[in-house]
Amino acid sequence: MLRNAMSHLRKTRRTHEAGDPAVTGPVRLPLPSAFAATLGCDAVGVPSRYGFRLLSHLPRAGCVFADADQWWWIVPAGSDLDLDWPAQASYVRGARVPAVRPRLIHQPDGDTPYTPPIPLFLMVCQVMGVAPSWAPSGDARAVSAP
Q1: For residues 95 and 43, is the Cβ–Cβ distance under 8 A?
Q2: Residue 1 Cα distances to 52, 96, 112, 131, angstroms
């Protein structure tokens, strides 16, 4: 798994270093046709220096894309609800990311393209040295007992 990811990342770096023109706008991450994104599609990006560590420590990873600067994990739409993602991470709705020729470097074995957002959130916080925090939406959450 990691060897395949490394091979794809090296190709991306060589292309980036060769001076290909940068993409001027956001790029939609193209999911493989074998996956149905029935829950919508958002993306969480982290600097590439954290990519391998996250990928190797997550219990399950969905589709992961990378360019020379960022790695992007596909998560269900709305996975940012009440989560304070660290400042170094990027949460992008609709999986339209500011990337230069992102490539699919990891494809899950299952039938869903998603990385579970809570384990990803906790791992991102851990590798970035940030305490996880949740931002309550202001609605009452307590449910009274019968």
Answers
A1: yes
A2: 10, 25, 17, 29
Contact 42, 91 (CB under 8 A): yes
The structure's pTM equals: 0.77
SS3 of the chain: the string is: CHHHHHHHHHHHHHHHHCCCCCCCCCEECCCCCCCCCCCCCEEEEEEHHHHHHHHHHCCCCCCEEECCCEEEEEECCCCCCCECCCCCCEEEECCEECCCCCEEEECCCCCCCCCCHHHHHHHHHHHCCCCCCECCCCCCCCCCCC
Can you tell me the distance from the alpha carbon of 95 to that of 65, in angstroms, rounded to the nearest whole number? 11
Inter-residue contact 99 to 23 (CB < 8 Å): yes
Please, are residues 69 and 47 in contact by the beta-carbon 8 Å criterion?
Answer: yes
Considering only residues 120 and 34, tell me which one the structure prediction assigns the higher pLDDT. Answer: 120
> Average pLDDT for residues 35-57, to the nearest whole number?
94
Distances (CA, A) of 90 to 15, 23, 110, 138: 23, 18, 25, 23
d(CA 146, CA 111): 39
